[in-house]
């Protein structure tokens, strides 16, 4: 069977990039799951973690307490409660120690484990904050490159993931993520 040129063009047309970078409040996003930059105890904290806990309501802290904590580089799932997102994935990023304690691989594991956990639950849209770049001190430029590279490498393993949002807090973070997006397109 021969296909006409229009059909061939439609088949081989490049797919739209599922990655989007925005500057917004992650607690307001209409996605299946938001990722919380969590601490190992999964307790309410400051920054993104505190904002997610406040917006989700007190049930989130109760659900997190029942999970028994989480190791650095790993992720756990709870309902989203009062958030627009159905779920929250709590991913524990590394505390920056100068790059001598495998922080890069630990950070990559946060993004990878969150995507796999979302896929296991059958979710198709996810929003990430800039994990570990706040109080944990991970250099934001390195973190953005690791995040984008890891997501790009992991997307073929989670084919039902059709939308990945990097939700930045501020123009500087957005610019770093946009530069990392461009650097990882090839």
The oligomeric status of these chains comes to single chain
Distance between the termini: 33 Å
Order of strands, main sheet, comes to 1-6-5-2-4-3
| CATH architecture identity | 3-Layer(aba) Sandwich
Coarse morphology: globular
CATH topology-level name? Leucine Aminopeptidase, subunit E, domain 1
Strands, count: 6
Our Rg estimate from Cα atoms comes to 17 Å
> Which structural class matches the secondary elements?
alpha/beta
Average pLDDT, rounded to a whole number, is: 93
Largest sheet: 6 strands, mixed
Number of domains: 1
CATH superfamily: Leucine Aminopeptidase, subunit E, domain 1
Q: How many helical stretches?
A: 6
Query: What is the CATH class?
Result: Alpha Beta
Give the SSE order as H and E letters: HEEHHEEHEHEH
Strand content: 15-25%
Helix content: 25-40%
Can you put this structure into words, describing what you see?
By secondary structure, this protein is α/β, with parallel strands linked by helices. The protein has six helices and six strands. The chain has helices spanning 5-12, 47-56, 58-65, 103-120, 140-154, 171-183; strands at residues 19-23, 33-38, 75-79, 87-92, 125-128, 163-168. It has a six-stranded mixed sheet with strand order 1-6-5-2-4-3, with helices on both faces. A hairpin with a 7-residue loop joins strand 3 (75-79) and strand 4. The protein is globular.
